[in-house]
Amino acid sequence: MSALTAPSSPPPAELSAPALPTGRTAGAPVPASAARRPTDWRIRFGALSLIWGFSFLLIKVGTQGYAPFQVTLGRLLSGTAVLAVAMAVRRERLPRGARTWGHLAVAAFFLNALPFSLFAYAELSIPSTLAGICNATSPLWGMALSLVALSEDRPTRRRVAGLGLGFLGVLTVLGAWQGFNGLDISGTAMALLASLSYPIGWIYVRRTLAGSGSSTLALTGSQLFLGTLQLAVVTPLFTSAPDGFPLLPTLAVVALGALGTGLAVLIQYGLVEEVGPTTAQMVTYFIPVIATAAGVVVLGEGLSWNTPLGALVVLAGAALTQSRARGSGPGTRGRTPRNGGRPPGTGTQP
Fold it and tell me: What is the mean pLDDT of the chain?
């Protein structure tokens, strides 16, 4: 997903961008065009929520016809193609310098190749609804890591309470009181590791890519390209060529990449510029709700009472870790990174 500047705490895993999705630094106010189109951003916000919410369903359908690595490779290839077209239309230049490309390669691994693959493998054995809820734990992991790795992020009672509440919600989703009975441990662990991978990538980006001078779109497109190369190397080593190209799984993989990893980046980038990172990142709290509804209604996945209850607790904890006490600092609405824009996530993104 320019000179990159990250937020005080990493937002959700939307994200395939090379910068933390909320870039909270001083910037310009909301453009006048936003005031002239009061409903436009809400339409795009809703579209982004649907795209990312349905991504877990698309992953599940894709793995019905392809190996997980093949799903991830197809996803990255489609997403890269969309951003390549956008870069060509806007006449964006590729980042310069071997050092920048090296950092982008690491970011591509932690923000794209690794989490996308882990979610694909996880959904071989767990419902898409559970994968979507695990994805919502990313802000919790991010807050916990940032308190350790980023000296400027100081623990507060509000944030600690949010972490505790969020992980209590995770235990509720997983049914800890009944000994995790019926839970696929390996699949759930992979989904949680995928969610952990995002904030690791965000913190790395925050430390290494701030001030690179390239545009957000150029960095994001280059990162996805490097992630595609990584999967192009790995996939033939662990999978064999598919016997055919089944229609529904193929369409699911293409849509997952073109919409959930390509178009979604462009949509969120526009949202951040128009309404600010704080409002834009609220999309995270709609993703597990839509993912759960899609899994139950479209795929017929089962749903026990503790899953939606635990998901609500997770989201409440995540929201608490992202909130600020009154008077603790300036608001972030309408702010953009000093480089002119922050990379939106694709990942989130799931």
Answer: 80
Q: Two tokens at 62?
A: 């894709």
**CA 53, CA 295: separation in Å to the nearest integer?**
10
Q: For the chain, how many helices (H) and strands (E)? A: 15, 0
Length of the chain: 350
| DSSP assignment string, 125-180 | TS-HHHHHHHHTTHHHHHHHHHHHH-TT----HHHHHHHHHHHHHHHHHHTGGGTT
* Pick from 174, 349, 138, 144: nearest CA to 263: 349
CA 223 – CA 344 distance, rounded (Å): 12
Question: Hey, what are 324's tokens?
Answer: 């600020």
Q: How confident is the model at residue 324 (pLDDT cuts 50, 70, 90)?
A: low
The span from the CA of 169 to the CA of 125, in Å, is 21
* Structure tokens that stand for 105 in this block: 């390669």
With 0-12 CB in 10 A as exposed, 13-18 as middle and 19+ as buried, what is 89?
exposed
Tokens standing for residue 25: 């630094």
Q: What is the DSSP letter of 93?
A: P
Phi then psi dihedrals of residue 348, to 5 deg: -10, 25
Nearest-angstrom CA–CA distance, 298 and 102: 41
Q: What are phi and psi of 193, to 5 degrees?
A: -65, -35
What type of residue is 302? G
Q: What distance in Å separates the CA atoms of residue 273 and residue 275, rounded to the nearest whole number? A: 6
The DSSP H or E segment spanning 205 is helix 185-208
Instruction: Pick 215 or 11 by higher pLDDT.
Output: 215
Angstrom distance (rounded) from CA 190 to CA 194: 6
d(C-alpha 72, C-alpha 100), whole Å: 24
Tokens of 97: 């310098």
Contacts of 239 (CB under 8 A, 6+ apart): 67, 69, 70
pTM score, whole prediction: 0.80
Q: Which tokens go with 107? A: 């970011």
